[in-house]
Request: fold
Amino acid sequence: MEEHNPGPGRKGKILVSACLAGEYCRWDGGTNLVPEIKSLVDSGNAVVVCPEELGGLPTPRLPSERIGGRVVSSDGRDVTAEFRYGAEEALWVCKEEGCRLAILKAKSPSCGKGIIHNGLFDGGLVQGDGVTAQLLMESGIAVMTEQEWLDSQAASSSAAPNDPPCS
Ligand code: SF4
Reply:
C-alpha cells in the first residue's frame, strides 16, 4: 500500500537540494541558501530533499566524500549504504512529484554534478557526480547545479524580446 501519495495537482515540480532552499541540513548544520531557489519552493513550484538525511544520517554529521564507488566519512566510516538509500529516496520523490529537473548543490558527494570533492578531505576536487545526482541522471532526470540554473535564468531574462513586433 502506497503511503506517500502526494495527491493530485502537484505534478511537474522541480526537485531541489534542501540546503539550497534554506534548510539547515548541511553536514555542519548550516545552510546553502539561494533565495531564488527558496522562492521556487515558497511558490509551490519545487519540492526539497536532503538525500543524506533521507539516508538516515544525522545533522550535524561528519563530512563525507566519494572514493570511487564508495562514500566514506572523515573518520573512515563507510556510509555508502546511507548515501545510496538517500539517492533512492530522492528518486522516489522525483517520480511521485513528476519532477523532470533537479537543481542540486554543487560539489556535494550526494548532490554534486560534474565536479565533487576528491576523497582526500583536503578541499581538492575531481570530476565526478554525487551519488544522488548520478542516480537521477541515470534515471532520465535533468540535473543542474545551482549556478547553472541561475545562469540559465539570467540568460532567459536577457534573451527576452525587446524589439517591436513586425507589422
Ligand atoms: Fe544539501 Fe544535498 Fe548535502 Fe543535503 S545532501 S545538505 S541537500 S548538498
